[in-house]
């Protein structure tokens, strides 16, 4: 039987996934940047009030999938806390600057999961050699790989996804752009798991806010925002009259 996984970004999304008959959710926040680790309040509420399996995305920020030591430490802490809260699986992964798998760090993330399932997420779609990367991930006990077949949508990447599925015992789960019009294409290829969001944008108020709170310049695929030490010092010094 095919397993349906819904990418859910809120309690309401998880409720709807459960009611629709999905088998589990990938719980995350901020779909617009590819998903981030959600709050532990949300994880706890979903676990206490709903009856659907939760695969939890561990991604500390938007941008690329190359993390410094502090970010990696946060990811490890998040995994330990998530396991304490009873999640079904961890969804995670780390790359190197040259878009090869960071095998050492990904293995550490996998080890931190203990007996909990581990999904390597769509960072896989950026690697240079998907077939050899698949073998590396299999060697460290990854449960599944979420992928669009290195294309913008899984339908465009379906041939690579099918080839990967035939290569390994690791579960290959197509995701990105799957809908009611194309889902049968994946069923006919024999995929055991399918990932989709079924997202609908709903207005929360009648009018747009008087001032914007979304800053497009702070959202990028190959960069991420941090507070700059020199800028912080200048502001503080200026306030103290030292500049």
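^ Assign residues to that structure.
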């Amino acid at each position: 039987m095919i397993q349906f996984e819904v990418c859910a970004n809120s309690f309401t999304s998880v409720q709807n996934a459960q009611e629709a008959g999905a088998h589990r959710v990938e719980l995350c926040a901020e779909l617009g940047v590819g998903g981030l680790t959600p709050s532990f309040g949300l994880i706890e509420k979903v676990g206490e009030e709903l009856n659907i399996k939760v695969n939890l995305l561990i991604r500390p920020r938007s941008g690329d999938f190359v993390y410094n030591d502090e970010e990696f430490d946060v990811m490890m802490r998040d995994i330990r806390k998530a396991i304490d809260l009873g999640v079904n699986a961890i969804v995670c992964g780390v790359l190197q600057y040259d878009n090869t798998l960071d095998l050492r760090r990904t293995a550490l993330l996998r080890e931190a999961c203990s007996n909990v399932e581990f999904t390597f997420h769509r960072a896989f779609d950026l690697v240079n050699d998907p077939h050899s990367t698949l073998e590396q991930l299999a060697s460290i006990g990854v449960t599944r790989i979420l992928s669009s077949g290195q294309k913008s949508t899984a339908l465009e990447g379906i041939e690579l996804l099918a080839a990967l599925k035939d290569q390994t015992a690791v579960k290959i789960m197509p995701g990105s752009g799957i809908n009611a019009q194309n889902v049968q294409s994946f069923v006919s290829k024999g995929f055991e798991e399918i990932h989709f969001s079924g997202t609908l944008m709903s207005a929360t108020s009648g009018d747009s806010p008087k001032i914007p709170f979304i800053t497009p310049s702070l959202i990028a695929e190959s960069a991420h925002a941090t507070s700059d030490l020199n800028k912080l010092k200048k502001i503080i010094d200026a306030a103290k009259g030292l500049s």
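The beta strands are 3-8, 24-27, 53-57, 89-92, 117-120, 144-147, 171-174, 193-196.
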